[in-house]
Amino acid sequence: MFTAHRSPERPDLLAQVERMKEIALRHAGDSERGRTLAPPVVDALRSSGLLKMCAPREVGGAEIDPLTHVEIAEAAARIDTSTGWSLSINAYSAACAGAYLPDAGVERVFRDGFPVVAGALSPMGTARRVPGGYVIRGRWAFGSAIRHAAWVISVAVLAPEDGQPPAAVPGVIAFLIEREHVRIEDTWDTAGMRGTGSDHYRVDDAFVAEELTFPFPNAPAQRGGLVFSLPTLPSVMPAHVGFALGVAQRALDELLPMASRRVNLWTSASVADSPAFQMDLGRAAVKLAAARDHAFSVIGSAWDRFNAGEPLSNEDNSAIRLAGAYATDVAAEVTTFAYRAAGAGVLYASCPLQQYFRDIYGATQHIAVSDDAYQAFGRLRLGHDVSHPLFAPRPRSANRDGES
User: Fold this and answer.
1) Ramachandran angles phi, psi of 27, nearest 5°
2) Which key words are in the record (predicted)?
């Protein structure tokens, strides 16, 4: 059993998600049709304070604990998938800027108030060192929530210095760049996750000052509490777990009234009165509850040990990654059951269940919850090394030594 240190802001933040419900539901179709989060929902996110939830207190954030992040992502996705996904991307991206940038970089990014930050943390570009910073070039995929962002965060591989051979293991940096220097490509015409605006984007030889960069993936935290000393993998996984759980819960929410209204033309009986349906519903509900309990146990117990001063082991990191993959797989299974049991009415675009079906399968394609999480955990249990840069512990920066 875990005790899991929880954020004091948790009740207020969950209440803010509930207050956004009407706006998010009203504009869910607009987000789908526009292929990015609808402006009224963006405005509601900004005014709610939810975009600050992950950031350090020094920049106005709540620096929520991992389990609170699961719960908020779950609650938001249960209302609207596009809102839930975009919220987590924007909140986590801003948190990275607030926690890991040097002081001069934070002053620039946060000088006009709390920023909306988006992007992709995959090393798809190159960074060439020049006096005072880097020249960045690259093209990134899956820039979720980028169209309403003021700043974009991305990751680039360091190019060899002039006259130097390529490094065996090249360095990697994360960088922040104002969106006006980024070219967004209209590529997000997809079957699932349509409302998240996850377009490709390019940076073409733009200068980025040193102060707007930090090492990736294990930069030391420059500000904020213990949560910013977590390795990268366990810091991003709560959003994926919560999103998947919220999708499946909403699918069951939508199914129940539809099953009561639907009549089987062969038997003239309500689908809801079918013993077979009732059994399948019970199985789906308990599978989802078990996946949720498993994720909370794995993440919560690891967070407890981390709070007690224990570094996360490869087994901790692998188990957290596996919990995310498993929660997503179970959510897809439960949502598929709901979709098939709902009948032909689910085909209409006006039925939210068809969106949740498409969106959970979109989420299954994310690298963070890919199937090889199972293989990696199996390899670990067999005694093989499964270390990875995303599992690497973060060193504490010199100016934070001695802090509790």
Assistant:
1) -110, 10
2) Oxidoreductase
100 and 135 Cβ atoms separated by less than 8 Å: no
The CA distance from 289 to 287, in Å, is 5
What lies within 8 Å, CB to CB, of 201 at 6+ separation is: 119, 139, 140, 143, 146, 152, 182, 183, 184, 185
pTM: 0.94
Q: How far apart are the first and last CA of the chain?
A: 25
The pLDDT profile of the chain, 404 residues, written as one tens digit per residue, is: 455 578 999 999 999 999 999 999 999 999 999 999 999 999 999 999 999 999 999 999 999 999 999 999 999 999 999 999 999 999 999 999 999 999 999 999 999 999 999 999 999 999 999 999 999 999 999 999 999 999 999 999 999 887 677 776 789 999 999 999 999 999 999 999 999 999 999 999 999 999 999 999 999 999 999 999 999 999 999 999 999 999 999 999 999 999 988 887 777 778 889 999 999 999 999 999 999 999 999 999 999 999 999 999 999 999 999 999 999 999 999 999 999 999 989 999 889 999 999 999 999 999 999 999 999 999 999 999 999 999 999 975 444 443 43
Domain boundaries, the chain: 10-109, 117-215, 230-398
Joined together, the tokens standing for residue 352 give: 């939210």
Task: Tell me 52's DSSP state.
Answer: G
Q: Which CATH architecture has domain 10-109?
A: Orthogonal Bundle (1.10)
Cα distances (Å, whole numbers) of residue 304 to 195, 237, 283, 309, 389:
36, 16, 31, 9, 22
Do 219 and 66 touch, CB atoms closer than 8 A? no
Diameter of the chain by CA atoms? 79
Architecture of domain 230-398: Up-down Bundle (1.20)
CATH homologous superfamily of 117-215 equals Butyryl-CoA Dehydrogenase, subunit A, domain 2 (2.40.110.10)
Query: 71-93 in b/e burial notation, b at 16+ Cβ within 10 A?
Result: bbbbbbbbbbbbbbbbbbbbbbb
**Pairing label, strands 151-158, 117-130:** parallel
Say which residues have a Cβ less than 8 Å from residue 345's Cβ, sequence separation at least 6: 258, 262, 351
For the record, the structure tokens of 91 come out as: 């909140």
